């Protein structure tokens, strides 16, 4: 059963809708900006029953993965990069608390969550001997580092940290059995925003769904989205 982390984003919601339209039972996970806002986040979730994840807490990441896997191992978990980093344009105007929050929510959170997901995948592989495709992790990038010349410093810091983490994982996780699949927009020209409108973001979600459903990976893989292309051809 696929799990969509970041189902509150437009891309995440579109991926969730596509899986549901295909008749697949899919679990939605939405982020809570702060633990105190959990009820508010639940009321804004894509549907009733969505699970809430507090991205600031390593224990919350572990609890989430344990909750999702208590009945059976995960088949696929799709993690959507959170693009909603509303920060001051100039670094010296950012409050120290705001800097700390950004690091917690947009840098450390992915370390916590992906650590637990990859640990789960390793356990599946150890028990099953790679007999199936369970435990696959797909990460969907929504920001392109350097695509806009006026990117605020903390936004750029968060995007670069996430991109560096994805590159390291894609290059270092072993390739036997289900692996890490990375989706990202193609590099943009200076000042251009790739995912600049709703139809393009929806097309990106379709690209992710089509590629995964085509059996994109027996190990690690990287797929770049360009507007007008639904999925990469299979070789």
Tell me briefly what this model is.
The protein has 235 residues and is α/β, with parallel strands linked by helices. The protein contains six helices and seven strands; from the N terminus they run βαβαβαβαβαβαβ.
Give a structural overview.
This protein has 235 residues and is an alpha/beta fold. It has one domain (2-225): Rossmann fold, CATH 3.40.50.720. It is 42% helix and 14% strand. It contains 6 helices and 7 strands. The chain has a 7-stranded parallel beta sheet, with helices on both faces. Strand 4 (76-80), helix 4 (96-128) and strand 5 form a beta-alpha-beta unit. The longest helix is centred in the middle third of the chain and has 33 residues, at 96-128.
Essential attributes:
235 residues, Rossmann fold, globular, seven-stranded parallel beta sheet, 7 strands, alpha/beta
Q: What is the number of domains?
A: 1
Uncertain regions spanning at least 5 consecutive residues: 34-46
Structural class: alpha/beta
Helix content: 40-55%
Q: Note the run of SSEs as H and E.
A: EHEHEHEHEHEHE
What can be said about the biggest beta sheet? 7 strands, parallel
* CATH homologous superfamily classification: NAD(P)-binding Rossmann-like Domain
Strand order of the largest sheet: 3-2-1-4-5-6-7
Mean pLDDT: 79
Using the coordinates above, name the CATH class: Alpha Beta
Oligomeric state of this protein: single chain
- Shape annotation: globular
Distance between the termini: 26 Å
Q: In total, how many beta strands?
A: 7
Q: What is the CA-atom radius of gyration, in angstroms?
A: 17 Å
CATH architecture: 3-Layer(aba) Sandwich
Count of DSSP H/I helices: 6
At CATH level 3, the topology is Rossmann fold
């Amino acid at each position: 059963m696929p799990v969509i982390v970041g189902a509150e984003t437009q891309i995440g919601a579109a991926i969730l809708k596509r899986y549901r339209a295909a008749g697949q039972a899919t679990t939605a996970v939405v982020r809570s900006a702060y633990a105190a806002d959990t009820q508010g986040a639940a009321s804004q979730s894509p549907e009733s029953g969505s699970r809430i994840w507090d991205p600031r807490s390593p224990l919350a990441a572990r609890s989430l993965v344990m909750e999702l896997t208590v009945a059976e191992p995960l088949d696929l978990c799709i993690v959507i990069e959170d693009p909603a980093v509303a920060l001051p344009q100039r670094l010296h105007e950012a409050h120290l608390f705001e800097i700390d929050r950004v690091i917690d929510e947009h840098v450390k959170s992915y370390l916590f969550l992906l650590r637990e997901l990859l640990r789960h995948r390793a356990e599946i592989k150890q028990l099953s001997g790679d007999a199936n495709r369970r435990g696959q992790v797909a990460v969907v990038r929504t920001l392109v580092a350097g695509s806009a010349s006026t990117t605020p410093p903390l936004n750029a810091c968060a995007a670069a940290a996430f991109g560096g983490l994805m590159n390291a994982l894609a290059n270092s996780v072993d390739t036997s059995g289900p692996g890490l699949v990375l989706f990202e927009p193609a590099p943009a020209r200076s000042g251009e925003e790739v995912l600049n409108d709703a139809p393009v973001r929806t097309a990106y979600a379709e690209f992710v769904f089509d590629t995964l459903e085509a059996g994109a990976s027996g190990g690690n893989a990287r797929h770049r989205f360009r507007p007008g292309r639904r999925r990469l051809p299979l070789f």
